[in-house]
Amino acid sequence: MAGPRHISVSEATRPVLPRHAKLKFDETRQVWVILAPERVLAPDEIAVEVLQLCDGARSVGHVADQLAAKYAAPREAILTDVIAMLQDLADKGFLTEAREKTT
Prior knowledge:
Elements: E1 15-16, E2 22-26, E3 31-36, E4 39-41, H1 45-53, H2 60-71, H3 75-91, E5 96-97
Antiparallel strand pairs: 1-5, 2-3, 3-4
């Protein structure tokens, strides 16, 4: 049985939620959740903002650039935090890397 494709998150990684996971707003609880088969994860507000930028087109570096500009914060500090958060999600099977394809 094949397991999830584990990735090592770096500045060049183009992260995306895997096909089996969806970021949705839970109207009942009034919180964002990541829904996956038999699992639910409730990320905090900052994680939700990062995940909304993880579309498979943007690199982690680009996500850090956007957040650094938005919050007028040091890019390197943001990059370090974003990589750590995304690696944790990847290790739990909630994140993968976009595959090269042209559509």
